[in-house]
Amino acid sequence: MKRTEYTIAVKLDARTFRRFCFFDTLKLRKRWVRPVVFALILIAFAVIALLSGKEQAGMIAAVLLAVGLGLPLVYFGSFLSSVNLQVANHKLDKPRRVYTVVLNADGVQATNDQITEAPVRLPWKEVQAAFRAKGCIYLYVNAARAFLLPDGQGSAPAEEIWNYLVKHMAERCKEA
């Protein structure tokens, strides 16, 4: 007999949250591209300045290299700092129960386990995408909000839950 409902009581920890942040920011949204392109452009100008052989070319090249490498390092450093600050603010150093997601024929229902509020209910057609990553499924309900469904926390094996998602939203499910 096939299941018609899956319940995932999500306990979130720092590692799972960090993996999601890296996936969302760097892989899905590709926010690494601009800093890298910026660095490459300034490095190219630094090389051109050095090859020109003009007076002060070394100084100009050094400044271009410092800015070209420094700003992307600051960008990625502030990203890592922001992720660590979020981990601390949400007290994820130890796994904590954050929400419960129920998947059924009607769609997705999510209940916040930390504060009392009405559950969020979405039909399948309104769920944006699902990504299968190592140890977790990222269920995006819109571009800015996703539910993390870590493996081993559902009422069925992760593979069965993933197959259920694929059944209801095939073209919007991707392996990460």
Query: How many separate structural domains?
Result: 2
Summarize the helix and strand pattern as letters. Answer: EHHHEEEEEEHE
What would the CATH topology of the largest domain be? PH-domain like
Main β-sheet, spatial strand arrangement: 1-2-3-4
CATH class of the largest domain: Mainly Beta
In total, the number of strands is 8
Multimeric state: single chain
CATH second-level architecture of the largest domain: Roll
Which percent bin holds the helix content? Answer: 40-55%
Spans where pLDDT lies below 50 across 5 or more residues: none
Shape: elongated
Distance between the termini: 30 Å
Largest sheet: 4 strands, antiparallel
Radius of gyration: 22 Å
Task: Describe the secondary structure blueprint for this structure.
Elements: E1 5-12, H1 14-28, H2 33-52, H3 57-89, E2 96-104, E3 107-112, E4 120-123, E5 129-133, E6 136-142, E7 145-150, H4 158-169, E8 173-175
Parallel strand pairs: 5-8
Antiparallel strand pairs: 1-2, 2-3, 3-4, 5-6, 6-7
Walk me through what this model shows:
- The protein is an alpha+beta fold.
- It folds into 2 domains: 5-13 and 92-175, PH-domain like; 24-89.
- 45% of the residues lie in helices and 27% in strands.
- The chain is built from 4 helices and 8 strands.
- The strands form 2 sheets. A 4-stranded antiparallel beta sheet has the order 1-2-3-4.
- A hairpin with a 2-residue loop joins β6 (136-142) and β7 (145-150).
- α2 (33-52) packs antiparallel against α3 (57-89).
- The protein is elongated, with a radius of gyration of 22 Å.
- The relative contact order is 0.19.
